[in-house]
C-alpha cells in the first residue's frame, strides 16, 4: 500500500528518530512510504494562539501538497492529525467554502499511526520485543479529541516482554498544550511536574506515547529531575526486536 | 466590577497561587474526591451520553425560545402573586433590590448561595445602605467573615483548610472549640440561627425557574435556603435570564445532571420548590416575593458565537476536572467564575480588558468538554476567545511578529524546507544536556520547569532524502 508520511515539525526538526522509526515501521508492515517535501507544519502554533486566520495560507499549502495523490496520510502525532481534521471548519468560517471541501477530502485521509496500523492495515501485533515496564501516556488529542483509545494499547500489549503499568490520573494532560507551555510556563510546569510525579511512582523503565510533542514535554521534566526513565515514541517501541533496534 | 476577585496582575496571581500550599492540597483533594464520586454516579445512572444529549437538547430548546419562556415565566410568577423585574444590567438589578430593601426598612438580610448575586455585586450595594447581609451557606459564610472571595462556583471555600477556618472563627467570632468540622459547623449554625430569625428579607439565587408554573427549583445541602426563603417576610430571588426549564419534566433531567455532576450525588440534601408568596390561608412562606431576572450581557452572548455557553447549569464539573484549575485554584483566575467555564464567561461578562489572560490559562486538553453535562464545547470556546483577542490586536507585538514569521515560512515550502534543515542542525549543535546557550523568550519560559529535548542534529527530511539517493 502506498502511504504518505506526515512528519510533523517537532519530529522533523528535533526528533527525526521518531520520523525514521515510523517510516521503517510502516515499511516493515508492507507499506511503500512517500514523503512529500512541500509539507509544512499543521499550523497549531498559530491556530491555538488565536491566529487561525493568518494560518490559512499554510493550511492551503498543506492541502495542496497532499492533493497530488490519494494515498492515506499517516502521522506520528495525534494533535497534528486533529488540527488538520479541523481545517474544513476554519476554511468555512473564513468564507473559503471551496477550500473547505478540498480540505475535507485531505483531512479524511489523515491517520494517527496507531489508528492506521490497527484499523487500516488490520495489524494488532507487529512482532516487536521490548523487555521492561512501561507507562503509556494517552495524549489528550489522541484520546479525547480523536477518540483513539484502544489502538495504541492493543499494539503495546502485544509487544513481547513489555509490561504496561497504570498510573494515577493517567488521562490527565501532561501540560504541553503547544504555546501554552511557554505562555503559561508556571501552570504548564506544575502540570508536567505532577505528571512526572505520577509516572515516577510506578517506577517504569519506559515512558511511551504516540504524540511526539507530549513526549518532548514529559522527557524535558524527567531529564530536569534526573530520572532514568527512557522516553520512547510508540513507533520506536514497535521497531524493537530481541536484538534491540530493528 | 464584581466579577473580579483581585486587583493583582494575572502573572502575579498565578505565582502566588502556585505557591499556596494549603490551597493546592485542598483543591487536589477536592478534585479527587468529587471527581471519583461523580464518576460513580455517572456509571450508576447508565446511558450517560444519552442523558447528556437530552440535557443539551433541553437547554438548546430553552435558549432558542428564551423570549417566549421568559414571558410565560413572568406571567405565571405574577399570577402566583409575585413581582417580576427584568434587569438589563447589574446596576439595574442592584438598584431594584436596594429599593425594595429600603421600602421594607430592612436592617438585616439573610442570603443563600448565589453566583449571580456575586456577579452583580449585590452585597456591597446593600451594605452601603447600612444593611447587614449575612451569607448563610457555610462556605460563603466562612468567606464572608474572613473578607475572602469564592474560588469555586459550587464549593466556594474550597481553597481553605480546617486550620485556617478555625483561626478565622477564633478571631472573628471568639470560637473556643476544636477544629473538627462538625463542631465548627454546629457553632456557626447556632450563630446564624439568630440571623434567620431577625432577618427582614431573604435573598436566594435560582437553579431553574419553571416557566409552566412560575416555580423556582433550588438545590442545597444545608437547608439554609429553606430558612432564608421562608422565615423572612420578603423573599427576593435573583436569576440569570437563561436559567429556565419549560416544565417539571425537564427539571427532572436537569437536576439529575446537576447534582451528579456537581457533587457526585444522586440528589442534594434539599430540593426546594417555591411557587410564589404565601397565599391566604397558608401558614408559612414570605408575604412578598420578587423575582429579579438578570441579563447583564447574556442577550449579547445569545447572539454571539459563544451562545452555547448559556447552556451552563453551573455544576462546576469542568473546574473539578481541569488540570490548570488544579494548579492555580479559583483565585488564580481572579474572577468569581474560574476554571474552564470562567475562562469562557468571565471575558464575556466582564470584558477582555480585565480577563484577557484567562483563555490562555488552558492547555486545550478538553477534559472539561468530556465532563460537561450539557456538552458545552468549552475548549473550542476558549480558543474562540484567543482568536478574538489576537484579531483585535491585544496580544504582544513580539507574539504577533513571531506568528507572522512562522505563518510566512509555513506557507512557502522552499523557505520552510530550508528552515527545518538549518533548524535541526542548529538545535543539534547548540542544545547540550537539555540546555541552550540562549536563555530568552520562549526558551527561557520552557526551561523554567524542564530541559530542552536532546536533538538528533539532522532533520527527518534530510535523512529521508539521503536515503532515497542511496
From TrEMBL, chain A:
<protein>
    <submittedName>
        <fullName>(Fe-S)-binding protein</fullName>
    </submittedName>
</protein>
<feature type="domain" description="Cysteine-rich">
    <location>
        <begin position="3"/>
        <end position="84"/>
    </location>
</feature>
<feature type="domain" description="Cysteine-rich">
    <location>
        <begin position="135"/>
        <end position="218"/>
    </location>
</feature>
<dbReference type="Pfam" id="PF02754">
    <property type="entry name" value="CCG"/>
</dbReference>
<dbReference type="GO" id="GO:0005829">
    <property type="term" value="C:cytosol"/>
</dbReference>
<dbReference type="InterPro" id="IPR004017">
    <property type="entry name" value="Cys_rich_dom"/>
</dbReference>
<dbReference type="GO" id="GO:0016491">
    <property type="term" value="F:oxidoreductase activity"/>
</dbReference>
Amino acid at each position: 500500500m502506498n502511504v504518505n508520511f506526515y512528519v510533523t515539525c517537532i519530529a522533523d526538526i528535533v526528533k527525526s528518530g521518531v520520523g525514521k522509526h515510523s517510516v521503517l515501521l510502516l515499511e516493515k508492515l508492507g507499506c511503500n512510504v512517500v514523503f512529500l517535501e512541500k509539507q509544512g507544519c499543521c499550523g497549531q502554533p498559530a491556530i491555538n494562539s488565536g491566529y487561525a486566520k493568518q494560518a490559512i495560507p499554510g493550511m492551503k499549502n498543506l492541502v495542496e501538497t497532499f492533493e497530488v495523490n490519494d494515498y492515506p496520510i499517516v502521522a506520528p502525532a495525534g494533535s497534528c492529525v486533529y488540527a488538520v481534521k479541523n481545517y474544513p471548519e476554519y476554511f468555512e468560517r473564513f468564507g473559503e467554502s471551496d477550500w473547505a471541501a478540498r480540505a475535507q477530502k485531505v483531512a479524511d485521509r489523515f491517520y494517527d499511526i496507531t489508528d492506521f496500523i490497527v484499523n487500516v492495515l488490520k495489524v494488532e501485533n507487529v512482532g516487536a520485543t521490548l523487555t521492561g515496564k512501561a507507562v503509556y501516556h494517552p495524549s489528550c488529542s489522541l484520546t479525547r479529541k480523536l477518540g483513539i483509545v484502544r489502538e495504541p494499547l492493543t499494539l503495546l500489549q502485544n509487544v513481547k516482554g513489555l509490561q504496561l503499568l497504570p498510573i494515577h490520573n493517567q488521562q490527565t494532560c501532561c501540560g504541553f498544550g503547544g504555546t501554552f507551555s511557554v505562555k503559561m510556563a508556571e501552570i504548564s510546569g506544575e502540570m508536567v511536574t505532577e505528571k512526572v510525579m505520577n509516572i515516577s511512582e510506578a517506577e517504569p523503565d519506559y515512558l511511551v506515547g504516540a504524540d511526539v510533542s507530549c513526549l518532548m514535554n514529559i522527557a524535558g521534566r524527567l531529564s530536569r529531575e534526573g530520572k532514568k526513565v527512557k522516553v520512547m515514541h510508540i513507533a520506536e517501541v514497535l521497531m524493537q526486536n530481541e536484538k534491540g533496534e530493528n | 466590577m464584581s466579577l473580579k476577585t483581585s486587583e493583582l496582575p494575572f502573572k502575579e496571581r498565578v505565582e502566588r497561587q502556585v505557591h499556596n500550599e494549603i490551597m493546592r492540597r485542598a483543591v487536589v483533594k477536592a478534585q479527587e474526591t468529587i471527581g471519583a464520586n461523580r464518576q460513580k454516579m455517572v456509571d450508576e445512572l447508565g446511558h450517560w451520553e444519552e442523558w447528556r444529549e437530552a440535557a443539551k437538547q433541553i437547554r438548546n430548546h430553552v435558549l432558542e425560545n428564551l423570549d417566549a419562556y421568559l414571558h410565560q415565566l413572568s406571567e405565571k410568577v405574577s399570577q402566583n402573586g409575585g413581582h417580576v423585574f427584568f434587569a438589563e444590567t447589574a446596576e439595574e438589578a442592584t438598584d431594584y433590590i436596594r429599593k425594595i430593601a429600603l421600602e421594607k426598612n430592612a436592617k438585616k438580610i439573610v442570603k443563600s448561595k448565589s453566583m449571580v448575586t456575586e456577579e452583580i455585586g449585590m452585597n456591597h450595594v446593600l451594605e452601603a445602605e447600612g444593611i447587614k447581609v449575612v451569607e448563610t451557606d457555610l462556605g460563603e459564610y466562612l468567606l464572608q467573615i474572613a473578607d475572602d472571595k469564592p474560588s469555586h462556583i459550587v464549593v466556594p471555600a474550597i481553597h481553605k483548610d480546617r486550620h485556617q477556618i478555625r483561626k478565622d472563627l477564633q478571631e472573628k467570632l471568639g470560637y473556643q472549640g476544636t477544629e473538627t468540622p462538625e463542631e465548627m459547623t454546629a457553632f456557626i449554625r447556632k450563630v446564624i440561627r439568630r440571623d434567620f430569625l431577625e432577618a427582614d428579607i431573604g435573598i436566594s439565587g435560582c437553579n431553574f425557574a419553571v416557566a409552566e408554573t412560575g416555580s423556582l427549583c433550588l438545590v442545597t445541602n444545608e437547608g439554609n435556603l429553606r430558612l432564608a426563603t421562608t422565615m423572612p417576610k420578603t423573599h427576593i430571588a435573583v436569576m440569570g435570564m437563561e436559567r429556565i426549564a419549560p416544565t417539571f419534566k425537564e427539571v427532572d433531567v436537569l437536576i439529575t445532571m446537576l447534582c451528579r455532576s456537581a457533587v457526585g450525588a444522586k440528589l442534594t440534601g434539599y430540593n426546594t420548590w417555591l411557587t410564589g408568596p404565601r397565599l391566604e390561608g397558608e401558614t408559612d412562606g414570605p408575604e412578598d416575593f420578587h423575582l429579579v431576572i438578570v441579563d447583564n450581557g447574556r442577550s449579547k452572548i445569545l447572539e454571539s458565537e459563544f451562545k452555547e455557553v448559556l447552556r451552563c447549569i453551573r455544576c462546576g464539573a469542568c473546574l473539578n476536572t481541569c488540570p490548570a484549575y488544579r494548579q492555580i485554584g479559583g483565585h488564580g483566575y481572579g474572577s468569581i467564575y474560574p476554571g474552564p467555564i470562567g475562562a469562557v464567561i468571565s471575558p464575556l461578562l466582564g470584558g477582555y480588558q480585565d480577563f484577557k489572560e484567562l483563555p490562555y490559562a488552558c492547555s486545550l486538553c478538553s477534559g472539561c468538554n468530556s465532563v460537561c453535562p450539557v456538552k458545552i464545547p468549552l475548549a473550542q470556546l476558549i480558543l474562540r476567545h484567543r482568536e478574538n483577542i489576537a484579531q483585535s490586536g491585544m496580544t504582544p507585538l513580539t507574539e504577533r511578529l513571531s506568528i507572522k514569521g512562522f505563518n510566512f515560512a509555513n506557507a512557502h515550502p522552499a523557505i520552510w524546507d530550508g528552515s527545518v534543515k538549518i533548524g535541526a542542525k542548529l538545535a543539534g549543535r547548540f542544545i547540550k544536556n537539555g540546555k541552550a546557550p540562549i536563555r530568552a523568550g520562549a526558551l527561557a519560559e520552557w526551561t523554567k520547569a524542564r530541559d530542552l529535548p536532546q536533538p538528533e542534529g539532522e532533520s527527518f527530511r534530510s535523512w529521508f532524502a539521503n536515503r532515497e539517493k542511496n
